[in-house]
Amino acid sequence: RHSSRLRTTTRTTTLTTTPTTTPTTTPTTIPTITPTTIPTTFQPMVTTPFVPPTSCGMPSTLTLDPTPTHIRANTTTSYFQFDRTLNQYMAYPIHENPLTILLEFKTVENSGVLFYIADADHRDFMGGQIVGGRVEISYNLGGGRVVLTTTNTYNDGEWHTINFMRNSLDGVLMMDSETASVNARAPGSLIGLTLGKNPLYVAGLPPETVPVALETGKHANFTLKACFRRMTINARTADFRSPSASSGLTQCYLNLQVGTSFPGDGYIELYSTYSPGRVFRAEMEFRTFNQTGLMLYYRQTGMTDHLELEMRGGMLIFTFNNGPDAVVIPYTPSNTFTLCDGNWHHVAISKSGGSGLLTVDRGTPIERTSRFPSLSTINGRDPLYVGGLPAGTQKVNGQVADRFVGCMRNLKLDNAGRALQPVSLYSTGTAIGSINRDVCRF
Q1: 26: part of which helix (H) or strand (E)?
Q2: Adjacency order of strands within the sheet including 382-386
Q3: Residue 238 neighbours by CB distance under 10 Å
Q4: Distance (Å, whole) CA 155 – CA 147
């Protein structure tokens, strides 16, 4: 240890940012255009006529992320954390004080662990995380915690490079090829990390490490769902193919998309007790390769009160029933394969009393009204399902619905006449079957 001391209370450190130098530009000479350079005849634009699809789209094949040529052969593998759990991570032994860290990653998440290393009691530590899409690096040498946070966000799904350097008390954080840096100085006079034999964790933390890391380092408590492809510590490259310990790693693919995958063998019970009431609204995005499939369903037990959204023969149909009369609102595309082409589509449904609306791909709303306007409420407190129903369950009409095959994302609901609220298909309710809740695999 460089000096003996008592632990002191963490104090805030003012961050400074080195301004970007404005480049100078040289005026460009614009050449004179002579009449001979101007075309005297114009060719009409050739357009390819639209050909309506003759079948549904086909699911795409997952493609492994290619290896960039500048990465050494033994560090080519990148990994993707599919679940935001507490026990997914990679661990690497550290044999010296980490003074420089370079890490390449890509993510679309708002928060999660990038890397973390600490001593036995987690007082001396250094870590990186995503917070609100921004990169945050923090460390404590014994005199108090200091934090460096980027101004820009880096959760756009593109590759980004973290360059962090520490010289004694001073830390410098730079991103990608940007010339601006974030700078900070740790409080106190101690200049080194006391780490013992603890490894450096990448992407997440073991369950036993999470509580104390949260308390002392204020770190994110779950794995960052991200791809990682290169890391160097003090200019030494870490081999992602052979960490000293790991949990829950999967190779990274190019064409994975954010969403929830429904392979057709299950469903999500979003809420065990739900009441659509008098006013109900929902919207979502979906992509499918089937012409038929149940997307959203609610029914009051033993009664005809219900609502449902389903694909049927290439049509999208919203049905609701406040009591004696079902209101059916169909959307019929110009081609029966339009909605099963594998592209993302947007759908919005709503009911207010006995009137309902269905809007597809933000087009013209389709409206229908009940013949019994005095009956305006869907009663009950029963489950709300997404993507299908439990095996053998019949709909109000006595049919067993086909389950949805494809992906959904950006679900929003409202049953109180207020603003639509996002509902996470990743964490809300219970999934039955082989549903992948946070990645669209099709």
Answers
A1: none
A2: 326-331, 315-321, 306-312, 293-299, 382-386, 267-274, 430-432
A3: 23
A4: 19
Token pair 């961050």 in the structure block, residue: 15
Q: Residue 182 in contact with residue 172, Cβ under 8 Å?
A: yes
Which residue type is seen at 24? T
3-state SS assignment for residue 16: strand
- Output DSSP code: residue 313: T
Q: Residue 64: beta bridge partners? A: 253
pTM over 0.70: no
- Which single residue is written with the structure tokens 């255009």? 33
For residue 68, what pLDDT band results from cuts at 50, 70 and 90?
Answer: very low
CA distance 142 to 30: 61
Task: For residues 167 and 185, give the distance between their C-alpha atoms in angstroms, rounded to a whole number.
Answer: 10
CB 281 within 8 A of CB 348: yes
Instruction: State the average pLDDT over residues 343-349.
Output: 97
C-alpha to C-alpha distance for 128 and 98, rounded to whole angstroms: 13
What would the pLDDT profile of 88-140 be if each residue is shown by its tens digit? 788 888 877 778 999 999 887 888 889 998 887 788 888 999 998 999 999 98
Q: 3-state SS of 169-224?
A: CEEEEEECCCCCCEEEECCCCCCCCCCCCCCEEECCCCCCCHHHHHHHHCCCCCEC
**Which two structure tokens, joined as six digits, stand for 305?**
């009160």
| Cα distance between residue 362 and residue 348, in whole Å | 8
